[in-house]
Amino acid sequence: MIKVSNLSKKFGDLAVLKDISFEVAKGEIVVIIGPSGTGKSTLLRCLNYLETPTTGQIHIGNATIDAVSHKAKEVTALRQQSSFVFQNYSLFANKTALQNVAESLITVWKIPTQEALETARAILLKVGLKDKFDIYPSQLSGGQQQRVGIARAMAAKGEVILFDEPTSSLDPEWVDEVLAVMKQLAIEKQTMIVVTHEMQFAKEVADRVIFMEDGFIVEQGSPQDVFNNPQHERTKAFVKRALKQH
Amino acid sequence: MQSSFDLQYIIELMPILFKYLGVTMEMALWGFLFALILALGLALVRVFKIAFIQHLASLYISFFRGTPLLVQLFLLYYGFPQFMPIFVGMDAFTAAVIGLSLHFSAYMAESIRAAILGIDKSQMEACLSIGMTRLQAMKRIILPQASRLATPSLMNYFIDMIKSTSLAFTLGVAEIMAKAQMEASSSFKFFESFLAVAVIYWVVVIFFTRIQHLLEKRLNKAY
Ligand SMILES: Nc1ncnc2c1ncn2[C@@H]1O[C@H](COP(=O)(O)OP(=O)(O)O)[C@@H](O)[C@H]1O
Ligand SMILES: [Mg+2]
Questions:
Q1: What pLDDT, in 10s, does the model give residues A167-192?
Q2: Which of A56, A200, B51, B175 is deepest in the core (most CB within 10 A)?
Q3: Do residues A52 and A59 lie in contact, with contact meaning Cβ atoms separated by under 8 Å?
Q4: How do beta strands A14-24 and A2-11 pair?
Q5: Dist. CA A235–CA A218, nearest whole Å
Q6: What does the alpha-carbon distance between residue A97 and residue A111 come to, in Å, rounded to a whole number?
Q7: What residues form DSSP beta bridges with A193?
């Protein structure tokens, strides 16, 4: 359902992604781990075309794009196949929680406003925000904002939700409620690609773990394989350090 | 020859001048409306860096900021009709409104552009991430937020425009300044006539400054 082929990205002379290829099946939960500065965010952002890759192909759902020859229409089509949960939430500041969630339905999918709001209410209920419909983001806690962020991504009707360190900006007290929402999505077989430092979450929820370093996929496999029986020295070192912290 | 200050004359002149305030305000309101539309277009062209047109926009802004309003008005009203037939027969009021719009749109474009650039780029990314186009993002998310930032300076330009309409008397528009000038030259009471018109401008500006403050207060607690 998702197929990434030979993806590379340079910022000027700095090669950040180097010939990345992988596939993700429908309903699969993929967790990407790795040291910071190795291109994890850049990879997710390329999938959503928030960054333009230098070369390579991306195929998601029924959209395909080639970095070298992409057209504006293809970019929009590709973006509609995925949605993004940002580390710093990035909720629409001028919209209430409900309007944030309904926005894609109204603007992108042209669903009548009343119906869109109804759907948005149902999604906010699912993430446990039934009494926050009409609250603006600035009045919500970090955990609540990120749950709205996830709800907004759920509403967007994409094939896959991309999470870029969704809990890294949160005060520790709010982390669990956000992870709980993500676990619920995993149970419902929502396809997800999650960049995170929450190793426990990766172990419990991931179908597959990808270890990235220096713009390469070094190793991938089941959480069992990657955490308990890593093949590469770099993976071993990283996993050892990461698990010790928890 | 020195004459004594004639307060009575001012009191009688006020209502006469006041009748012409309508024309002044009409010029300012139309001028501001068109300036706003033009400025928004110019700002978007520059923000989206639309090939070629963005350079025209920069040139436009540079010209209208770089030359005096009075020169622009003369060029438009007395100059253009000489070689562009569509301008022949344009009345002075229309010329003044066009001139004011063009002039102020150049300034307003820059403050709208600054306001748009003042919105965190994560807002645009969030729009794109759920499949919106850049134009949809502008309309629904970025411009509503930017308008809050731009309102104080746009209100300043509106107030500036009210005062600048006084230049329209040089084109022969029968607005408040022209009337004061006429009254002054027939009564020879220059000081009283121009003081009266100054007071009227002043009161109008105070009124709109008050509105500006109320508007800003409301905007500040919107979200
Ligand atoms: N817009 C950008 N311009 C230049 N360099 C960038 C940009 N974004 C990221 N980088 C660089 O790319 C590398 C990978 O960054 P990133 O994808 O954020 O890594 P990670 O998410 O794994 O921490 C870093 O060296 C970072 O400095
Ligand atoms: Mg990152």
A1: 999 999 999 999 999 999 999 999 99
A2: B175
A3: no
A4: antiparallel
A5: 7
A6: 18
A7: A30, A162
CA nearest neighbour of B215 among B162, B152, B169: B152
Angle CA(A49)–CA(B109)–CA(B221) in degrees, nearest 5? 80
Is the beta carbon of A196 within 6 A of some atom in ligand 1? no
Alpha-carbon distances of B185 from B9, B164, B178, B194, rounded to whole Å: 14, 22, 11, 11
Question: Minimal CA–CA distance to A103: which of A76, A88, A123, A86?
Answer: A123
- pTM of the complete model: 0.90
Residues B141-175 pLDDT 10s: 999 999 999 999 999 999 999 999 999 999 999 99
Nearest CA in chain B to A50: B125
Please list every residue in chain B whose beta carbon sits closer than 8 Å to the beta carbon of residue A94: 141, 144-145, 222-223
Span from the CA of A11 to the centroid of ligand 1 (angstroms): 8
What number is the ipTM of this complex?
A: 0.94
Letter for the amino acid at A208? R
CA distance B223 to B221: 6
CA distance A183 to A203: 12
Q: What region does A210 belong to: left with phi over 0, alpha with psi -120 to 50, or beta?
A: beta
